[in-house]
Specification:
The complex is a heterotetramer, with two copies of chain A (about 350 residues) and two copies of chain C (about 325 residues).
Chain A lengths: L26 H26 L13 H10 L5 E3 L5 H6 L4 H9 L8 H4 L10 H16 L5 E6 L6 H13 L3 E7 L2 E2 L2 E2 L19 E5 L3 H19 L2 E6 L19 H7 L3 H11 L5 H22 L20 H20 L1
Parallel strand pairs in A: 1-2, 2-3, 3-7, 6-7
Antiparallel strand pairs in A: 4-5
Chain C lengths: L1 E4 H15 L3 E5 L15 H5 L4 E3 L4 H13 L3 E5 L10 H8 L2 H4 L8 E7 L14 H5 L5 E3 L4 H13 L3 E7 L6 E4 L13 E4 L4 E5 L2 H15 L4 E5 L2 E3 L4 H10 L2 E8 L4 H12 L9 E5 L10 H4 L3 H13 L1
Parallel strand pairs in C: 2-3, 2-4, 4-5, 5-7, 6-7, 10-11, 10-13, 13-14
Antiparallel strand pairs in C: 1-8, 6-12, 9-11
Helix pairs in contact in C: 1-7, 3-4, 8-12
Classes of the chains: A alpha/beta (about 350), C alpha/beta (about 325).
Bound molecules: thiamine diphosphate (2 copies) and magnesium ion (2 copies).
Amino acid sequence: MAETAIQLLTPEGTRVEHPDYPLEVSAEQLRTMYRDIAITRRMDVESTALQRTGELSLWCPTLGQEGVQVGAGHAMRPGDYGFTTYRESGIFHVRGVEADELLQLYRGNTHSSWDPQRVGLGLFTIVIGSHALHAVGYAMGIQRDGTDDAVLACFGDGATSTGDVHEAMVFAAAFSSPVVFLVQNNQWAISVPVERQSRVPIAQRALAYGMPGIRIDGNDVLAGLAVTRTLLDRAREGGGPALIEAITYRMGPHTTSDDPTRYRDESDYAHWDELDPLERLRRHLLLIGEADEVFFAAVEAECEELGEKVRGSIRGMPDPDPMLMFDAVYAEPHRDVEADRAQMGAYFTRLQESA
Amino acid sequence: MAETAIQLLTPEGTRVEHPDYPLEVSAEQLRTMYRDIAITRRMDVESTALQRTGELSLWCPTLGQEGVQVGAGHAMRPGDYGFTTYRESGIFHVRGVEADELLQLYRGNTHSSWDPQRVGLGLFTIVIGSHALHAVGYAMGIQRDGTDDAVLACFGDGATSTGDVHEAMVFAAAFSSPVVFLVQNNQWAISVPVERQSRVPIAQRALAYGMPGIRIDGNDVLAGLAVTRTLLDRAREGGGPALIEAITYRMGPHTTSDDPTRYRDESDYAHWDELDPLERLRRHLLLIGEADEVFFAAVEAECEELGEKVRGSIRGMPDPDPMLMFDAVYAEPHRDVEADRAQMGAYFTRLQESA
Amino acid sequence: MTGMTMVQALNAGLRRAMENDPKVLLMGEDIGPLGGVFRVTDGLQKDFGELRVVDSPLAESGIVGTAVGLAMRGYRPVLEIQFDGFVFPAFDQIVTMVAKHHYRSEGRTPMPMVIRIPYGGGIGAVEHHSESPEAYFAHTPGLRVLTPADAAEAYVTIQQAIASDDPVIYFEPKRRYWDRAEVDDVSPITGDPWTSRVVRAGTDVTLVAYGPMVRTCLEAAAAANDDGVSCSVVDLRSLSPLDLNPVYVDVRRTGRCVVVHEAPVTLGIGAEVAARVSQECFFALEAPVARVGGAFLPYPPNRFEKHYLPDVDRVLDAIDGVLAL
Amino acid sequence: MTGMTMVQALNAGLRRAMENDPKVLLMGEDIGPLGGVFRVTDGLQKDFGELRVVDSPLAESGIVGTAVGLAMRGYRPVLEIQFDGFVFPAFDQIVTMVAKHHYRSEGRTPMPMVIRIPYGGGIGAVEHHSESPEAYFAHTPGLRVLTPADAAEAYVTIQQAIASDDPVIYFEPKRRYWDRAEVDDVSPITGDPWTSRVVRAGTDVTLVAYGPMVRTCLEAAAAANDDGVSCSVVDLRSLSPLDLNPVYVDVRRTGRCVVVHEAPVTLGIGAEVAARVSQECFFALEAPVARVGGAFLPYPPNRFEKHYLPDVDRVLDAIDGVLAL
Ligand SMILES: Cc1ncc(C[n+]2csc(CCOP(=O)(O)OP(=O)(O)O)c2C)c(N)n1
Ligand SMILES: Cc1ncc(C[n+]2csc(CCOP(=O)(O)OP(=O)(O)O)c2C)c(N)n1
Ligand SMILES: [Mg+2]
Ligand SMILES: [Mg+2]
């Protein structure tokens, strides 16, 4: 197991080669990833603002973690499938979920607003750790279909303590299923530091199951891309599961309800600021002469546009028809749900009449 | 991590030294352990026979695994506490639970027949893996009490797949609690071979948590004694948790309800027969001249006596008074239980009157 | 028509479902070479292979959680939980994930899955092997709950459960596993499993039961008949949804109702039946609905179970009770 | 007497319990420096140290399972489950181990433990943060279940729960966390928490509620009063054991009963209340017991909750219903 985290792009923006993870990446793709990170970041800002004005119930900022998210998103093939947490707007964006689509959920209109089939992303689960098993099961399905798809299972450092994540790794190893576990170690599970979950690097967990455990610089989009792609390919070729620990930092609060000043020092941020994934990629693009201020201004303009679009579609959105809540509890009619629907409908009518 | 299992006594009965696990053991203690294994084994035979004649509901044979059980039992100090499975009559015997006491449970009279405080053994839990957490919690209590007790948590290879065992190791590592996890890898979880639980040695699980993982020859009572004692002492001195994988074999069926011919080959047994823990210790005692046929005959007589005692106390034992089932549901009176008790009492009276 | 035990009927039903749909697969502990501890899956791995009959690692949350993923990929997993008492490690996956997935996805992702659970007491087992946890699942929106009362029912309803696009918790009354019945294993499967069925018609008292207690109630009804009391017996069969219409019709005639199950009475299925029957048959009831079931204790050691479990005498006593008013 | 929110009252109650008994310790996620996501444990780690206020790894089964061991060693763990929807990973430990330990050990090993769970909806939260799972626990022999309706109750009953030698599931109505009340934080703690209490006396209809719905019912009773209908309100307070005697007494006078909770009606606490009241007040009831509660759905997205949750209007509608008969 690598002691130090794999890095393909230094904080100063220079490329480093790694023997195990060779990477060829076009300038076009570099620019796309820059744009993806910038847009993800803007979405964070917009969503936080919308939450502050009561348009959203909650938002879980991704700030600081976009590097590995965008890299991993780009590592996936269209047929691959991802299982994520609530803090993965980078991957959602890369896989084609529109910002205002995703925000339906945080507005409280729906429990899931995207079509899992279309974007190849499962519903995210708020009950920490549980989706790791869904990912493995999905991968077991791939094995039975005989296709060469692979699955990416994303979760946080806190999640690694849960029984479900363990069982997921046990099953994946037992059946040698095509799944890569991507742990975003952002140093915190709400207010609890990662040391409470593990006294040794999280990547070391992989040894328990006989699979590779690789630490990467989570703020390096290229490391995220290269290592995730290599391990997904290994998995799809029958090499079995693997674990990536992406070392990063949650620069924002846990959610818009959180107050990090209660449990961590402002002074921590400076260190991570220097490792910022967006700035790093910007430096790289400038260094290799593949982007200029015109490009950056265009991205900025695109972000502005996104912001406007999001605000426009979310602000003052009407609430859904109350009777919709009775839909889709079951795939086939269920007597008790239908009785409740009828009863509630009659009640709403009485209520309107008496009003 | 040791690649090969630690052995202090060869199958031929000769002592081997191991630099990390020096062991001084008196002839007296060797004879005691021989006796313990023999008695445990006899209890197996008696219990199986009692089950066959309907006196017990079930029995879980320990045959083949007595070496590590008796060794580990001897490694514990009186103040230490153990958490076991249903297949641990060796440890129960060493810790002073009488055979006929234990069998109350398998007769169906009680869910637990020993006093946990007296023998320092928790109730065994049939829901696989769950007691590993109890062990860690108990160890956390020891840390708060500031005593130098330690805890032994025993479970099988199958149990290592459960989320609870993982969470137990996470907590133990996080709090550096004085607990030793002893996995008896008897190669099977009912009909499922250990390879389905793990493709790498179970001891390797320890690496995930940054604790030592030691493989031992589970049919070697001395390795069981020395390694368990060393790690318990390390834990009680603040060294933190550790994991032992004892390689052994379940020579009997999973329980008296099981039919192993459906899933494994008779031919497997021969190999393990040669590694038998009792025979090994017998050879050793003979080799070092610390036991003779008089001693072995005395042990045999003691076993006979035990058999008679057990049969005498279990056979034809009357069923408990039905109303006892209402006792001890709660520590303090509970209205609903009391109502049910009264109702049932009245019903029994009606039933008797009408009969 | 073939004479079969319930175990054989379930085995035949599983086999037919697997033949009919290549997406059906079985997963659980010891269901492969061993054929399950009750032999319900006997021979299936041999015939359908290890990819369709999967011996899993020992982890119930893992079994159910991976089945969620398999269902998302288009499979129809049929899971075996070895005994009632071992379903709880999977409770989170069942209640939080399986039950809600269709709703959470706004109908985009169905969750066809059957979780087979041998349940109930009466076989002299050790702890955690005799429980009746059905009310937990029937209280959970998003799940369906079925339980067969005999081999013929089992053969049909296990196939219907597998064919359903909703997740079904399928409770198998283990003390009835070895009861034999004539099973029609030739005709196409028809009928609506999500209904209750009147298995005996009577005029004085309506007995309501499901799973293992259907036979007990039929025996009680026969005994009552000898005493001149005519009892109907309704087998609920589906615990979610509940179909109490046949019960209401019957109670409106008899005016008396006794609900019987093994689970603790408090908040057991009988509570819902009693509440609804009291509501719907308010003016017809001549006596309060009586509930016969487990006392408010953990399942006791098995030497107590013949006293703990409802039996013919307890049902007769309750019949006397409702007739006394 | 001090004016306190329910959060402050719980904090004060925990503090006092910790001062009184060195064996009391708190464990949960984010209960240390953060003081819990609702700040119920605010300041306690600072004052009692990390050994008595433990921020655990992220694992609910781990929290409850290790607490079992701590209790065996003589401690009295008070656990925080961060939200209702996250109790299920610990369900096995709670139902299989915590609930049964005293019984299994034949009374040798008490299991004093309090599991605090903020529950219920009404705060506009995301999924899994608004559920009412109390019926699962009330159906489980071996557990006690308490839920306070206001700050004064919370201050007293949290201490009584901690003092109990039995395991207590303590449901905190999170939408009432910020309601203020006068709390007597000076007098010794007295009274029996395992009883229900009549919080308003009336003559026409008996409203039965607990936790968050007590205030709703009091508001409904006030509104009904304006329309000339006099309602009693009974706060169950303890869901296990249930104390329905005050309800029976009241219903025998009013002849009408409405039970209100947020959880799905089917097999919710109201089912047991309706079944028992229908039994005990059979001849006094003028109308069937009405149940007001959640529809049979997973908790919907929060933009629906004002329609999903019982409110004053729904309770008034049910009052009209029982009066119409
Ligand atoms: C089973 C469960 N327990 C508790 C919570 C409350 N909770 C939400 S996020 C969180 C911390 C998660 O930490 P981590 O896995 O590191 O992910 P991060 O939020 O840092 O991305 C907790 C405790 C939950 N959602 N699910
Ligand atoms: C949670 C749970 N699931 C399933 C079972 C049924 N069961 C009893 S023993 C056993 C196998 C246990 O294997 P292992 O841990 O290796 O212990 P061994 O029996 O070999 O000593 C199983 C699956 C159980 N008791 N608990
Ligand atoms: Mg984190
Ligand atoms: Mg084993």
